[in-house]
Design a protein that fits this description.
With 194 residues, the chain is of the alpha+beta class. The protein has six helices and eight strands; from the N terminus they run ββαααβββαβαββα.
Length: 194
């Protein structure tokens, strides 16, 4: 466990309208068109563009290896009402800061503005703090991605400054707003994010 968490890493996480679960090779055909959409990929730091089926299969393998090594926990977000994959979220543990992790997330364009991103982030904050025992979760957002910045604030994060961040799809580095929430802040703040 990380930071004293008492429970094992979850295989899946239930959210009000979503099931967050491990990626599978059979999911590739469903999630590649979503993450491969330029309107999604352009905001993501570690995602190449174009994003191919080979990239998707590599991601499934990497996510499984990282989970086994307790380095990262990545989930595909699937809508419970119909099983449709609509995005993804994950926590990537910081090697140099024990008890700390970066949260990442994306939502496919057809599912934007429906609250799924906030639902994913809130569920992962709960996993990070209450199941993995993390003390701090952080995120960086492209400065032009106002919906993502707003989502982080609504989830209880606070902007703590800026940091240089590479965005693979754009082939450039930007000075990105840096957001953070701590385990001590989470209980009071989660009431306003659900």
């Amino acid at each position: 466990m990380v930071g004293g968490g008492a429970e094992p890493w979850p295989d899946s996480v239930a959210a009000p309208r979503l099931l967050l679960r491990a990626f599978r090779h059979e999911d590739v055909a469903d999630f590649v068109p979503l993450i491969g959409d330029w309107q999604v990929a352009r905001w993501l730091a570690r995602v190449p563009h174009p994003y191919t089926a080979a990239d998707g299969h590599e991601w499934v393998e990497l996510a499984a290896r990282d989970r086994a090594a307790h380095a990262a926990l990545a989930f595909l977000a699937v809508r419970t009402e119909d099983g449709a994959p609509l995005g993804a979220t994950g926590l990537h543990l910081d090697r140099d800061r024990p008890g700390s992790a970066e949260i990442g997330y994306w939502v496919g364009t057809p599912y934007h503005r429906a609250g799924y991103g906030l639902e994913m982030v809130t569920a992962m904050l709960d996993v990070g703090f209450n199941r993995l025992g993390l003390s701090r979760i952080w995120a960086a957002a492209d400065p032009d991605n106002l919906p993502s910045r707003s989502l982080l604030l609504k989830a209880g994060f606070r902007q703590r400054g800026e940091r240089r961040y590479d965005f693979a799809a754009r082939g450039r580095s930007v000075l990105a707003p840096y957001f953070e929430i701590t385990a001590a802040e989470w209980p009071a703040r989660r009431e306003g994010s659900a």
